[in-house]
Write a structure and sequence with these properties.
mainly beta, 249 residues, 7-stranded antiparallel sheet
């Protein structure tokens, strides 16, 4: 299915939202709860699956939804359609501060792998699926990097990342980063987890036991402040009541 050709505008600087402009009959899909506002003439419908395959049977939809469910993702996606003759707009944002990354999948080999919490919205026709990394080491040591979402299509897709986002272009090279800082990477990039060498680096380096290793030719998107790191710092600094952190029973 060819993706709908949607226009968009990213609004804001530090806590961004993306406003998607829909022509008559165009649809954009999004994670449940991501919508901020929509103009009149736009209707929304919660469906099981991304709608990329209109002929997909009930069993196939349940299988795809089941993979999302076991990784903590919602079973459903919301479809926003412009039923008006005029152009109408709908906007989306993530529930924590950060930046929105717009990617034309036709420029990334029509595929992108991203952290499972990064996907925000995409043009109808984009297939959004869970991709388990084939390497066992990634599963045991990868943390956030083990379960990835795969986006396939030839249209616009939007991801959300914490803090500032940097795009690195690799040309047969390798890049090493904290697993939580990885946002996404294009086809042509091989992803693995490698242990930190040396006891001194392991115990005193402050960078954890493992690093994500990305090798090949393509694009890599990196976030400066993963939400997990922000949440850990907030919990550590939370006021303590009677010797216990606020919120503990």
């Amino acid at each position: 299915m060819k993706c709908h050709e949607v226009d968009y505008e990213i609004i804001g600087h530090d806590m961004q939202m993306v406003e998607v402009e829909l022509d008559a009959g165009e649809t954009v899909i999004a994670e449940a709860g991501a919508m901020n506002y929509m103009e009149q003439g736009i209707s929304f419908d919660t469906k099981m699956g991304d709608g990329s395959n209109a002929d997909q049977g009930v069993i196939s939809k349940l299988f795809s939804a089941g993979k999302r469910a076991i990784t903590g993702e919602s079973l459903f996606m919301t479809h926003f359609t412009n039923n008006d003759a005029a152009k109408r707009r709908v906007s989306f944002a993530a529930p924590f501060p950060g930046s929105i990354v717009a990617v034309d999948l036709s420029t990334t080999g029509e595929q992108l792998l991203c952290q499972k919490d990064s996907f925000l919205a995409a043009a109808l026709g984009t297939q959004v699926d869970i991709a388990f990394n084939r390497r066992l080491g990634s599963g045991f040591f990868g943390g956030e990097g083990f379960v990835l979402q795969r986006m396939q299509g030839d249209g616009m897709a939007f991801m959300h990342a914490g803090g500032t986002v940097v795009r690195k272009e690799l040309k047969g090279e390798s890049l090493y980063l904290d697993t939580g800082c990885l946002v996404a990477f294009s086809s042509g990039i091989d992803y693995d987890i490698k242990m930190v060498s040396g006891l001194k680096s392991l115990f005193f380096g402050g960078e954890g036991m493992c690093l994500a290793t990305l090798t090949g030719t393509g694009s890599v998107w990196i976030q400066s402040l993963p939400f997990s790191r922000l949440a850990d710092r907030i919990i550590a600094m939370a006021p303590k009541l009677n010797g216990r952190q606020q919120g503990e029973s």
